[in-house]
Amino acid sequence: MKIIVFGATGVTGLQLVKQALFNGDEVKAFGRNVFTTEMPQSDRLELIPGALFDEGQVLKSIQGCDAVLSALGGATDGTDKTRSLGMKIITGQMQKAGVERIVAVGGIGILQADENGLLMEQENFPPEFIPVSEEHKKAWEHLQKSTLQWTFVCPPMIVNGEPTGSFKTMANYLPSPNSFRISSGDLALFMLNELHKNEYVQQRVGISN
Asked: Cα(96)–Cα(156) distance, rounded to whole angstroms?
């Protein structure tokens, strides 16, 4: 499989690149600083320095791929539009390129609390996480409006760590019991597995170690 990773220089993105190469996939790593991070060495890895908000660069990088993995991050105070605008651009250019499958990282706030509302809409949701949750919600809306086969993984706190294979998932809700943390390695492991298993297509996914 030929995969492109957006957000490839973050802790989850690096795990996605490393694990995809380990699996034998061909990988494109897209970002502004791909040559300055600790990327693995492989003849199946193509480093693409590019600007996420440049539609032409994004389209060119997606062309020829079988699937997209997005681990976009940034500031959490609501001033950084990387998550929402980035997803709008990625989904739009995927549709132009005829690439249908995307597995992306969102946030815990947009999981369902109950039938009538999201976690971010509940009174006990931490107010400091509302701005970034709003960004995740906008990104989710772009996925929903698209014609793509999408999966939106909504992790709690991501801690830098290697994959263990020991984690729980649930469609649209928090899994139970829940540690409210997931290692970057296990998050990447789930995302890559989901590309092949397609168990959560057009669903959000709660995940926890």
From this structure: 32
Q: Which long-range contacts (CB under 8 A, 24 or more apart) does 131-134 make?
A: 131/76, 131/77, 131/78, 132/76, 132/77, 132/78, 132/83, 132/107, 133/107, 133/109, 134/78
Cis peptide before 177 (omega within 30 of 0): yes
185-200 residue pLDDT tens: 999 999 999 999 999 9
Q: What is the pTM of this model?
A: 0.95
The residue to which tokens 């005829």 are assigned: 98
pLDDT for 66: 98
Q: Given CA atoms 80, 84, 90, 96 in this order, what sign does their dihedral have?
A: negative
Q: Where are the alpha helices (DSSP H) in the chain?
A: 11-22, 55-62, 82-97, 130-145, 184-197
What was the pLDDT predicted at 139?
97
Q: What angle do CA 204, 158, 95 make, to 5 degrees?
A: 40
What radius of gyration do the chain's Cα atoms show? Answer: 16
Task: List the chain residues with pLDDT less than 50.
Answer: none
Phi, psi of 113 (to 5 degrees): -85, -40
Kind of pairing between the strands at 168-171 and 203-208: antiparallel
